[in-house]
Fold Cytochrome P450.
Amino acid sequence: MTTSEQPDLMSQAARETAYDTYAALRDTNPVSRVRMPTGQDVWLVTGYDECTSFLTDYHRFKTSPTVMPEGMEAPALPEAVVRLLGGSMGSVDPPEHTRQRRLVQQAFTPQYVERLRPGVQQITDQLVDGLLDREERTFDLVEDFAVPLPLTVMSDMLGIPRADRDRFRLWSELLLSLDPTSAQSAPQGMSPAEVMAEIEEFVRYLDALIQRKRAEPGDDLISGMALAEADGERMSDDELLKMVALLVVGGLGTTQHLIGNMVLALFRNPDQLRLLRDKPELAPGAVEEMLRYHGPIEISFPRFAAEDTEIGGVPISRGEMVIGVLAAADRDPGRYPEPDRLDIERTANRHLAFGRGAHMCLGAPLARVEGQVAITTLIARMPDLRPAQSLDETPWRPGLTLRGLTALTVEF
């Protein structure tokens, strides 16, 4: 067994310098054994080629451990958390994963997502209208724009009644706070017991909502998934519950942090901001470059070696946990010339920001649409948008799973 390195990955200072930390690991060895703050040893894959190979190999690496590493025990999870996330599409391997994904994609198609674009534009314009109508010329880009945009889009898409939106936001924040790599406390100072009580209430709410949608289907995504059929199969109520939870976790946090990260990246690269203002038609490619440069998903789901194997010539023992560091792979100089330079006209840009393989982020098409609409609308309607604070003082979200800001004060 090789000696584990113990880099600082979790502090606020480490969040700011994460790319430097990953570069040092990648330069030493693109497959590095690291001790996490929990004391657990894991393999971090930071090279692009090694990460791509790992992410797409479901024979050697499983989302569920076939044997637990020595000294590691599977955590006991509350029943409500298991109902929402246990055995969901994000935590199972093919062929079961393939079956579930085929069913959800009957409803959540690229064509369906593209049809949402006018609605996303309308919601974005309404948010910007409200900001422009304020007397105060400063606002928190995260709280006042990056959070409500995907929250409203997701609520409309799932058919969440407007009267329930505030509770839905709390429930979504609580799900995101379950990040196993995060040491953050519960939001709003809630106790663990209060968090579990709210998550149990969310389960009851979704159970009732699913039954209503089955009885009286609408044009929302829950109704579409309930009616979706592939090879004579439909989703069970339990599978539908888990799919909604997965969409909430993936669709809200991912897009929220994508928007904040894009604005931060452009503030730190004013030449690219000017270029995008002058050429808004570059927006689709610019979003892809900013996903590569500063994506919202930092690491992959953990996987476990199903056998004694290797990655990039580094031996991995059966049962050991492996994590692909998407943020590091997308800055690998072996794949991208000048990887630390933001270039919104970059063309060879097959990044890993949404993962790769069967577990590639289901909400990627929607995040792209929201990202394109958000950044072009902000730039067009707020041409003087600029930071109202030092960019070195921006607070980062705790944890490694999602990478993004918790606040960004701007002025216009």
In short: The chain has one domain: 12-411. The beta strands are 31-35, 41-45, 61-62, 138-140, 303-305, 309-311, 314-316, 321-324, 386-387, 409-411. Residues 237-268 form the longest helix (32 residues).
